[in-house]
Design goal:
The protein is mainly alpha-helical. It contains four helices and no strands. Helix 1 crosses helix 2, helix 2 packs across helix 4 and helix 3 runs antiparallel to helix 4. The radius of gyration is 12 Å and the shape is globular. The relative contact order is 0.17.
């Protein structure tokens, strides 16, 4: 695994440490907070990975008003993959 997939995996591992013990709707609120606070650095990527990274950033901005799990589902729909 490399590129944006690796970066998303590493970000998800950090999220799991913080949000994993939290249950219910608060868990998704925590995930949302972590994703918004830790966008990927798109300058690190080239080609398809860079395009996916930029699309993810745009999706985060357009979905930001959505709470918790709705935010994650919105991002997933916009980028057609999981942000984690």
């Amino acid at each position: 695994m490399d590129g944006i997939k690796l970066a998303r995996c590493e970000r998800h591992q950090k999220m799991a440490e913080k949000c994993g013990p939290i249950k219910g709707p608060a868990h998704y609120a925590c995930d949302r907070e972590c994703l918004i606070a830790n966008p990927l650095d798109c300058k690190k990527f080239t080609g398809k990975d860079a395009a996916q990274c930029l699309a993810e950033g745009k999706a985060f901005k357009s979905c930001e008003p959505q709470p918790g799990q709705e935010f994650i589902l919105c991002v997933r729909k916009e980028i057609d993959t999981r942000p984690m």
